[in-house]
């Protein structure tokens, strides 16, 4: 039946969705799984880029999946990290490169050369927040990885996915039914931290509920404050997106973000509150001493 076909077109290993946008992601993921060409998965933090990459590898029947995080070049050392990556480029393996937009120039240049000379039957999948050439330390690396591509929309742009994601994550936490009132509150959230933020929110709520049924009162305060607000649309959503981008660009410095947006810091804080933008979910909960909220 048509509904059964739609469910099939919305499934990846361990991942769920119901929107047209998500079905597009699944379609692109299956194309990547059928090919050995390098692929790029582009999306905001928390959208599930790594999980999609792993699902693609499993869909292709690959048992040898190796994940390399760009951040590890600092702890492991660039030379050791590059050596491990070179050793991982084996036939029939899938190598996943996380956050390639964070690579330093020397490492990016080395990877570009190795990707170009990778053995046959080696699948390379990279994840990034941006596919803009100017955001990369080495444009050649981007060109060599951006053969096939999966664009993962932020959760706020595919709200039909929120209910199935909530039910799926709640079930993994041992809650096999979600109160309609709780679901309605969660549906209204802007979710700047995307699926990761949904997971963190549910985990906190389940911990508070203990053995009780999950209710609205168990949700974090920042979520309950949004319970009577409507989801953002149109210009308000565009402005909220611009604020999120500015905060990410300035690494959480609200003073610099306000300057980038051309508004005062007080106005920025008012709009953060108005749009329900969760700075914790963005990873910018700490406020520098010179960036205290205006009184």
Largest sheet: 5 strands, parallel
How many DSSP helices? 15
First-last Cα distance: 59 Å
Mean pLDDT: 86
Q: Helical residue percent? A: 40-55%
What structural class do the secondary elements suggest? alpha/beta
Order of helices and strands: HHEHEHHEHEHEHHHHHHHH
Order of the strands making up the biggest sheet: 2-3-4-1-5
Beta strand count: 5
Alpha carbon gyration radius: 21 Å
Strand proportion, as a percent range, falls in 5-15%
Report what the structure shows.
With 295 residues, this protein is an alpha/beta fold. Helices cover 49% and strands 9% of the residues. The chain is built from 15 helices and five strands. The protein has helices at residues 2-8, 20-33, 49-59, 72-76, 78-88, 105-116, 139-145, 162-172, 180-187, 194-209, 221-224, 234-249, 254-261, 265-275, 279-282; strands at residues 39-43, 64-69, 93-98, 123-128, 148-152. It has a five-stranded parallel β-sheet, sandwiched between helices. Helix 6 (105-116) links the parallel strand 3 and strand 4 (123-128). The protein starts with a helix and ends in a 13-residue tail after the last helix.
Provide tags for this entry:
295 residues; alpha/beta; five-stranded parallel β-sheet; 9% strand
SSE layout and pairings?
Elements: H1 2-8, H2 20-33, E1 39-43, H3 49-59, E2 64-69, H4 72-76, H5 78-88, E3 93-98, H6 105-116, E4 123-128, H7 139-145, E5 148-152, H8 162-172, H9 180-187, H10 194-209, H11 221-224, H12 234-249, H13 254-261, H14 265-275, H15 279-282
Parallel strand pairs: 1-4, 1-5, 2-3, 3-4
Helix pairs in contact: 2-3, 5-6, 6-7, 8-10, 12-13, 12-14, 13-14
């Amino acid at each position: 039946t048509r509904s059964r076909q739609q469910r099939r077109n919305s499934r990846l290993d361990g991942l769920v969705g119901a929107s047209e946008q998500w079905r597009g992601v699944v379609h692109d993921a299956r194309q990547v799984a059928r090919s050995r060409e390098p692929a790029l998965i582009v999306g905001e933090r928390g959208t599930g880029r790594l999980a999609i990459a792993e699902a693609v590898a499993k869909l292709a029947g690959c048992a040898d999946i190796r994940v390399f995080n760009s951040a590890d070049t600092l702890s492991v050392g660039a030379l050791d990290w590059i050596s491990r990556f070179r050793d991982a480029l084996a036939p029939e393996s899938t190598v996943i490169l996380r956050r390639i937009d964070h690579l330093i120039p020397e490492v990016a240049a080395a990877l570009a050369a190795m990707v170009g000379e990778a053995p046959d039957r080696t699948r390379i999948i990279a994840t990034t927040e941006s596919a803009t050439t100017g955001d990369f330390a080495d444009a050649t690396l981007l060109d060599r990885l951006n053969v096939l591509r999966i664009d993962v929309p932020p959760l706020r742009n595919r709200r039909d996915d929120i209910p199935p994601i909530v039910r799926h994550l709640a079930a993994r936490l041992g809650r096999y039914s979600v109160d309609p009132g709780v679901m309605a509150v969660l549906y209204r959230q802007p979710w700047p931290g995307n699926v990761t933020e949904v997971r963190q929110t549910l985990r906190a709520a389940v911990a508070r509920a203990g053995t009780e049924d999950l209710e609205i009162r168990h949700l974090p305060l920042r979520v309950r404050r949004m319970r009577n607000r409507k989801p953002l649309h149109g210009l308000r959503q565009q402005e909220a997106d611009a604020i999120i981008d500015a905060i990410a660009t300035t690494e959480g410095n609200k003073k610099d973000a306000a300057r980038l947006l051309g508004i005062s810091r007080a106005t920025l804080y008012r709009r953060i509150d108005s749009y329900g933008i969760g700075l914790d979910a963005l990873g910018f909960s700490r406020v520098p001493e010179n960036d205290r909220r205006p009184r």
